[in-house]
Amino acid sequence: MFLREVRIENKHLNTRQYPFSIPVIRNLESLTLNQPVTFFVGENGSGKSTLMEAIADKCGFNTAGGGRNNYYEIDAQTSALAHYVRLSWLPKVTNGFFLRAESFYHFASYLDTLDGGTGPYGGTSLHEQSHGEAFLSLFTNRFNKKAIYLLDEPEAALSPSRQFTLLRIIYDLTETGECQFIIATHSPILLGFPNATILSFDDEKIEEVRYEETDHYRLTKYFLNNRERFLEELFSDEE
Ligand SMILES: Nc1ncnc2c1ncn2[C@@H]1O[C@H](COP(=O)(O)OP(=O)(O)OP(=O)(O)O)[C@@H](O)[C@H]1O
């Protein structure tokens, strides 16, 4: 554990302006982190990426994705929230990585400009690997201990079985307490990681929920157990 608390300070009151137009961000005072793995869950647009990006910015990571020393040009991504965020560390780490599924392509391009992109990523440019293979190459070759990893929807490129591989990687890195992950996800598989804190961004505030209480678990379980009935209801004309 390294990052213990995220505080929002000196919010301005113009609630029509992003990021304080987002109810969860407007209502957030402080967030305590007490497990090596924390998940952000919630509906699309509830503010998960906004908070994650601000934390990445305050960690000194490239907000387009990457670590501290990864400087590359893509459409400017400045975090509107970072200015208001204070992080409390014990102890402080500077190692780590921010993974954004949506801009991973640009990060891979940047690596290609360094040393043909083949150095630490399994001997092949990330562009010559499939999206999911490239993600996993990054996880297996770049992730190591004494670091904090911020992952925004890492499941985007991963098959279910590769999501299990990622769970194993996270398990190996966190079992001695020397790594911390904050993961925004919609994946009921990733959310099943044991002893993680799950923070829901629904209902206009951040609240800890149990795995079995998440929509991800409940809807997926209901769908798998009642697929025909579920689809009949979904496609019926009745409101
Ligand atoms: N740069 C921006 N300027 C203005 N509004 C923004 C900006 N970025 C995001 N928003 C808005 O803020 C809200 C929260 O977006 P955010 O990306 O944080 O949601 P999210 O919970 O990560 O959603 P998802 O699960 O779809 O990734 C959305 O309504 C979005 O349109």
From TrEMBL:
Keywords: ATP-binding, Cell membrane, Ion transport, Iron, Iron transport, Membrane, Nucleotide-binding, Transport. The keyword Nucleotide-binding applies. The keyword ATP-binding applies. Residues 6-227 form the ABC transporter domain. It is found in: Cell membrane. InterPro entries: AAA+_ATPase, ABC_transporter-like_ATP-bd, ATPase_AAA_core, P-loop_NTPase, Rad50/SbcC_AAA, Siderophore_ABC-ATPase. It is a peripheral membrane protein. It comes from the Bacteria. This is AAA family ATPase. It comes from Gracilibacillus marinus. The lineage of its organism: Bacteria, Bacillati, Bacillota, Bacilli, Bacillales.
